[in-house]
Amino acid sequence: MSILDADDGGDLAGALAALQSDEEGELSLHDGSRVAVIGGGPAGSLFSYFLLQMAENVGLEIEINIFEPRHFTHRGAAGCNHCGGVVSESLVQTLAAEGVNLPPKVVQRGIECYALNQDVGTVEIATPLNEKRIAAVYRGNGPRQSEPLEFIGFDRYVQDLAEQKGARIVRKLVSGLQRLGGGIRVLCPDGSGGDFDLAVVATGVNSHFLEGVDGLEIGYSGPETRKAFLCEFPLGRKEIENRLGAALQIFLLDMPGLKFAGLIPKGDLATMCVIGENIDEQLIEAFLEAPEVKRCFPDGSVPPHICHCFPRVNTRSAVKPFADRIVMIGDTGTTRLYKDGIGGAYRTAKAAARTVMFSGISEDDFRQHYWPTCEKIESDNNIGRFLFAVTRQVQKWRFLRRAVLNMTAAEQRRATGPRRMSSVLWDVFTGSAPYKEVLLNTFHPAYVATLTWHIMLSLVIGVFSFGSRGQR
Ligand SMILES: Cc1cc2nc3c(=O)[nH]c(=O)nc-3n(C[C@H](O)[C@H](O)[C@H](O)COP(=O)(O)OP(=O)(O)OC[C@H]3O[C@@H](n4cnc5c(N)ncnc54)[C@H](O)[C@@H]3O)c2cc1C
After folding, report:
1. Is the pLDDT of residue 335 over 90?
2. Which residue puts its alpha carbon closest to atom 17 of ligand 1?
3. Residue 265 CB less than 6 A away from ligand 1
4. Positions of E strands within 11-133
């Protein structure tokens, strides 16, 4: 399916109008226009791929240069983009509808279920409808000490797609942007770079580049971010197969500041990913010492990891991520709260490419046609914040943890019938559905009634066991 067929059916006229208006002196792309994409992660590469495909469809000849210093073929930090590497179900499907089918050499493992680990027990949640569409991928080429991969990383794969469509990859770091009369100058530390009609900033939030954008005085203020934690455990294929299989381990523990933690099985490694409010060495140490975490590893003890990092994660949208001839996409603009960041990169990349092709490249074009996509993501994130506040209460109170576990376990034991708590947990943990949809599912009378029943049951059990154990 071509991009024009997908959801831009009537926009060929829009593209032609944009080209015509350029002749009248307005800001839009024309034959020979040059576009600089700063950063070749998922947002930058997908933007380039979509824009080149749209240009091909309307017969426009443009040049795209993707500035990206990382070689995603390298093992270790030089090839890594710091991420858990879970590609959500909805994104796998959306990309397939765009004609981008993740090949087996990119998918390290298909995730078949989630195991929810709590102090009150563990329950496995099978994919709704027993589909196996979540993909665990490497963003780079694995840690330095990992086995050489026959696989290729996700970022390399999408960058190759953009290159095959005609994008030029420039293996350079960009140090700054300068506004010219009729364009944008891209500056690299070695004095190279060039002049472009449009600059698309897709550097993510783990780069110093955004600090320099302030100097352009375009009213942009970067996204709010928080520190996260990632590390890789070399468990070996056999151990991963036997112990973790195709299950992603999720931890719902009573630790202040901890929002989400998961252990993701890949080739011969398992990636631990911890996201929260005040992630530091101390919290990570306490987390790795938790019995719920230890019991996921061989002999019930956490082995040494071979690499770790504290990358930043976007937790609130940037302010005004656009100006004449400049647009910020992916993490530098807006993304989904704590989940599906690659999905957020896809959505903002596509919205920006559509705006550039079918409307124009002025501040007003981005405000009218690009910003609504960011606003929609951010307003869904506000619902996500509420859901995480509720999840925090579940983390905090043992009787609630037990009620959630029991309700989920009862649903998973049933061969048929609705699995409402399982679906809510699945969607919150995988990011497969918008937070709004998750919230609406919790209003269902049957969900409310069953949960209330399990909470009451759990309170009764708690009263009987309180004296002996003294737990909350
Ligand atoms: C701990 C953690 C776990 C996560 N887990 C998941 C997950 O499991 N699933 C998921 O969907 N999302 C996850 N995310 C979020 C996801 O990583 C991001 O949302 C996503 O990578 C954003 O893509 P991007 O292209 O905007 O930025 P990035 O992926 O950060 O890519 C930016 C690119 O720009 C390049 N760059 C930076 N500065 C410059 C410069 N000055 N010049 C040229 N190039 C430059 C970088 O080298 C990089 O390749 C996680 C994030 C964190 C922190």
Report:
1. yes
2. 83
3. no
4. 34-38, 63-67, 86-87, 107-111, 113-118, 121-126
